[in-house]
Amino acid sequence: MTTKNKEIIKFIKHILKKIEPINKKINKSKLHFKNKSRLEVDPVTKFDLLIEKKIRETIKKKFPDHKIIGEEIKSKKTNSSFTWYVDPIDGTKALLMGLSNWSNLIGLFDNSKSILSVANFPALNKVYFADKNNTYCKSDGKIKTLNLSKKNKLNKTIIAMNTMSTNKNIKVLKRIKKKFFLKITGADALNYCLLCEGKIDVVIEYGLKKVDFYPLMRMIKNSGAVISDWKGKQKYKHGDVLVSSNKKLHSYFLKNILFN
Q1: How far, in Å, CA of 107 to CA of 213, rounded?
Q2: How far is CA 182 from CA 16, 74, 159, 208, in A?
Q3: Containing H/E element for 92?
Q4: What are the strands, taking DSSP E only, across 80-167?
Q5: If 240 and its partner were Cys, which of 26, 102, 230, 258 is the partner (CB 3.0–4.6 Å)?
Q6: How many helices (H) and strands (E) does the chain have?
């Protein structure tokens, strides 16, 4: 496989067309779910499975030797340097509640380098995507290149967390609430997209799976944002993720907010 932008973008459009009929059926269906976990409610619907199967089939047909790591189906391991990360419905809980921020996430890596990001929001009629050099948003048929917030003043910093799971670290929560504008959004992948649009300055998460944020890596890095775990590394051992719109903010949060 080559990694030329035109080829990648053409193939992603092909994938999105393949799953479009399934996404459309979601709005017309009565939704039911099963729980994947014994420890907490972690719902999965038939549409999660249908979308992931369709994405996998499409990738396998064109790139049969590629690895695939998905949310719902056992990983496909090969000797290829290319790995696809797939979250068929990021925000299944939001979907079940009738909210619009659920998305289809697809990312492609060559070894450890992210080369493609896609976040498709069918209910919002928005697609965020990143190729080799830039991050874009397609909305209502119009495509724009995204730009980060240029804010450096700490007292103006807007922070987003997705769920209460990040707030289990009470010390971190107290440090944030004392100084910053904080919103628990429940917006899932949309948080990262809005950061790339310049509407959010920092996203802090804990307990994520790789498929929750790996598909977004190219988009985040192209926008100029900084991403690491809570120790400033790239290990994400506990699903601990910090994304900041600039290096100054990132350094501040690592040193003054997320330390143990």
Answers
A1: 9
A2: 34, 36, 5, 19
A3: helix 92-96
A4: 82-90, 103-110, 113-121, 126-130, 135-139, 142-145, 158-161
A5: 230
A6: 8, 14
